[in-house]
Amino acid sequence: MANRIVDLRSDTITLPTPSMRNAMATADVGDDVFGEDPTVNHLEEMAAERLGKEAGLYVTSGTMANLVCQLTHCGRGEEMILGDQAHIFFYEQGGSSAVGSIHPRTVPNQPDGKLLLEDIEAAVRPDNVHFPATRLVVLENTHNRCNGAPLDSDYLQSVRRLADTYGLKIHMDGARLFNAAVALDVAAAELAAAADSVSVCLSKGLAAPVGSVVCGTRSFINRARRARKVLGGGMRQAGILAAAGILALTKMTDRLAEDHANARRLAEGLAELKGISIDPDAVRTNIVFFETNDDDVAAEQLAAELAAEGVRVLPTGKKRLRAVTHYHITTEDIDHALGVFDEVL
Ligand code: TLP
User: Fold this and answer.
1) Strand pairing of 79-83 and 103-107?
2) Which of 54, 91, 124, 343 is most buried, judged by most C-beta within 10 A?
3) Phi-psi region of 201 (alpha: psi -120 to 50; beta: other; left: phi over 0)
4) Cα–Cα dist 99/104, whole Å
5) Helices 18-25, 239-251: inter-axial angle, 10-degree rounding
6) What was the pLDDT predicted at 4?
7) What is the mean pLDDT of the chain?
8) Pairing state of beta strands 6-7 and 287-292?
9) 144 lines ligand 1 (CB under 6 A)
């Protein structure tokens, strides 16, 4: 058994900080379904302000945030355009169709997480009785499966102009929007500006134990609140959880640069190793994808061998693996992990 564990499977594993636990223990709470939890109300207002939107809504998870937004933008049988690598398409159990009867129309994600404008435009349905009506474009920022790539505001504004031409809404899955903002050195609000709705996770790199916030116009959030309730997401004294979320937003965003530097260090170290293929220049935030290039070594096997030595990564394909840096990973952990990779390979 290895005695040093370096857990790079996801930034979702981060644990609440001591000050979060303290804030949770002492939070003022009330019944949030009545709108009477002061701590939830404060978190929602703060998040909206940080993202430059009118209002916010605290939800249980990133998956619920995305689903609430899809349900609010689209009706039954209506269509949304999204990337074929989108988290919503890959990892949310097809909730769009299972729960929302929303038709997903995928277009290819480029390696930098973008959707080509011409692909989006070609996917917009003409007004014809045979077709579902297109309502929504979904973007993901940073893009998980595309090396955690951040989408910049010039690109986002170009999608906004296209969406406006066709009367479409934009939802941005900003589970890691603050990673994008830090990587691009812009305010999160600048990135959120192009979107009608944006969701941010508090429970990934920001280390809160639970929750995401959806932000948009007041009227959008009022409707989204109904969608949250029908999904069973009307939590009562949720201020206990929101208290940690407030600290996630106030204390944890600026330090994400450390995670990005560690991810880059990991990527550059991996690039030196025989048996691994990786483009370190593609790593701009905290997500590192790499492949085994040895025909005899499958991703699952490499992950198991590393895990036996205390280094945990996530296999995401036959040859593909993912490592994510976060609050509990130090530069020394990265160097230790690289040593373990070297031994195992
Ligand atoms: N991503 C998780 C897994 O589901 C893959 C991870 O470990 O990265 N949007 C994006 C871009 C995400 O990466 C995730 C979680 C979500 C939404 C969903 O968030 P949760 O897990 O809170 O429902």
Assistant:
1) parallel
2) 124
3) beta
4) 13
5) 140
6) 94
7) 97
8) unpaired
9) yes
